[in-house]
Amino acid sequence: MGIIAPTLPDIDVAAWRAKPRAERTRVLQQHWALHGFGTPLGVYGLYILKIGLYVFGALAFAASTPGIGGLADAGDWWLSPVVFQKVIIWTLLFEVLGFGCGFGPLTMRFLPPIGSFLYWLRPGTIRLPPWPEKVPGTKGSNRTILDVALYVAVIWAAGYVLLSPADRGQGLIEPARFIPLLLLLPTLGLRDKTIFLAARSEHYWVTAIVFLFPFVDMILAAKLLMLAIWWGAATSKLNQHFPYVVSTMFSNSPVMPPAVKRRLWRDAETDLRPSWLSGTLAHVGTAVEFGVPVVLLFSRGGVVTTIALIVILLFHLNILASIPMGVPLEWNVLMGFAAVFLFGEHAEVGLTDATQPLLVYGLFGLVVISVVWGNRRPDLWSFLPSMRYYAGTWSTSVWLFGEGAEQTYADRVTKAAQLPHRQLAKLYPPDTVDLMIGKLQAWRGLHTHGRAMAGLHPHAAADHESRFVMDGEMVCGSAIGWNFGDGHLHQEALVAAVQERCDFEPGQLRVIAMESQPFWNPIQRYRIIDAATGVIETGEVDVAEMTSRQPWDGSTPFRITWRDESAVV
Q: Which residues touch 319 (CB under 8 Å, ≥6 apart)?
C-alpha cells in the first residue's frame, strides 16, 4: 500500500482473533506503547498539507483587505490588528466547515476524510438540540431546511467578515460586520449544539465578541480570554489522568525517538502505566500553562516577555508535533500567533488600561464561571466551554452492537460516513482492518477511563465477547458529522436519535456512558443504556482504582447504585 501502509504488529491474526477481547487488546496496547497508532506516512503528509492550506487561507483573506498590501508584503503587515481579527474568523470558518479538529484518519475518518459541511447541508440528517424541552421550536432530531439555511447563513456571515475592509484610522473591521455571525451561530446552536461546538465557539465566537469593544479593551479582553484558556486547561490537568494522556499521546508522536517512547512507560511489555518521565512531563506542562501566561500578562515587553513567548511557542509546537488523536492542529498554530500578537506586539496593554472595565471584566467573569462550573458539574457542560482540554477527564461512551444491529445502523441511519471498519475495508485487507480497529480500542484503554470501560463490558451484555464494539466517539463522527472528544454528543440524545431510525429490540444495542471526573471528586459515574428501554444500570468507579490497573485488566471493582436485573442479556 506504499505511503498509506500502517505500522502494525507482526502476529498471526487468525490466532489473535481467537483470543478473548482483553488479550487481543493487550497485544495492541503493547504495540501502541512503542509505535502509537502506526500512522502511515501519507497521513502525516495530509495533515502537513492541511496546516499549510490553513495558513495560506489566513494570509490570503488578510491580503484581501484593501490597502494592506499583497502576500509578498506579509512580513510588513502580519501583526496588524485586522489580520488578528481575520485569522480568528477564518479559523472559526475552517472549523465550522469540518477542516479543523476531528478531521481525517487520526479521528478514524478515511473515506471521506471530511464530511461535516456536506452532512450539515443535507436535510434529514441528525441534529442534537441542547435544550429541546426548554427552548421552543427546537424539539426533534431531524435536520430541516431551516437548519440548513441557518448553517449557510453562518458560513456567509463568516465570509462577510473575511472580505471586509479595515477602517483606515484604527485598522480594524467595522464592529457591526461581526453582528450577523455573533447572532446566527448561537441561534443555530440552539437547533444543533454539534455545529456550535465544532466552531470552537468557546474561543473564536467569544473572541469575536471582543471585536465589538474599543481597541485597547479588545486587546485586553482577548488577552484575558487566552489566560482563561491556558489556566482552564492547566486546572483540568490537576488530576491522576494527565500522565496517562502524556504517555499515550507522545507514543503516537512521529518525532519522538523510540528510546524515549519506551521510557514513557514503567515497562513497555508488562506494566503500561506512565513512568516517572511521563509524570514529570505532565507536571512541567501544567506548570508552563499556569506560570508563563502570568509572566506574559505582567511583563509588558522586553527580554522577559520574549523569553516567555519562546516558551509558550515551544509548548504549542510540542503539542502540534505530536499529532495527537483528534488533531487540534490549527488551534495550536492560532494560539502561537495570538500569543505573539497580543502579548508581544501589544505588550503595553495591561490590566489597568481598560476604558470600559465593565465590558472587559464582565466578559472575563462569564468565561471564568463557565470554567469553574464546568469543572464542578461536568455532567452539565461540554468539556470545551469548561476548557478541560486534553486532560484525560473526558466523558465518553462505548457502543455494543448485538447480532445484526450494526448492519441495521449501516442501512437505516443517514450518516456522514460509515463506521470506521467499513471505510477501512475499502482500503485494506480484513486482517489489517481488524488490527487498525483494535488499535483504536487499545488507545482508549490506555487512558484511565478506558480501563473502566473494558471492565463494564460484562455489565452491559453477557454476550459482550461476540458483540461488535465501537468507541462512541467514532459512532459520533459517523452519525452526526463531527467528533472531538465530547462524550455528551454520543450519549442519551444520540442513542435516542439512532433508536428512532433503527427501532432496535431490547438488548440489541447497549451503550456504556461514563461521565468525566468532577474537580477534586475521586469518582467517575457511569450509566448503561439500552437503546430500546433506557438506562439499565448506574454506578461509579474510583479513579484511583483505574490508575492502579493495567489497561487490559477488567477486574476493576464498580459500585453499582442501581441495576435492572431483568435487562441482562
A: 328, 332
Q: How confident is the model at residue 169 (pLDDT cuts 50, 70, 90)?
A: low
| Exposure on the CB side of residue 544, measured as CA atoms within 13 A | 3
Give the span between the Cα atoms of 451 and 241, in whole angstroms. Answer: 12
Q: Which cell is 130 given?
A: 441542547
With a cut of 90, say whether residue 429 has pLDDT above it: yes
Phi, psi of 466 (to 5 degrees): -95, -5
What cell was used for 26?
A: 493487550
Q: Tens digit of pLDDT for each residue in 373-389?
A: 999 999 999 999 999 98
The owner of cell 503500561 is 272
Q: Which of 236, 265, 507, 200 is nearest to 376 (CA)?
A: 236
CA 273 to chain centre: 23
Q: Nearest 10 degrees: CA dihedral of 560, 566, 567, 568?
A: 80
CA separation for the pair 219, 214 (Å, rounded):
9
536-565 in b/e burial notation, b at 16+ Cβ within 10 A? bbebbbbbebbbebbbbebebebeeeeeee
Contacts of residue 366, defined as CB under 8 A and 6 or more positions apart, other chains included, come to none
Q: Is 38 helix (H, G, I), strand (E, B) or coil?
A: coil
Inter-CA distances, 90 with 62, 175, 337, 345, 400, Å: 10, 16, 13, 21, 39
Residue 321: count other Cβ atoms within 10 Å of its Cβ: 15
Contact status, residue 339 vs residue 120, Cβ threshold 8 Å: no
Residue 270's CB is within 10 A of a number of other CB atoms, namely 9
Read off the amino acid at residue 215: F
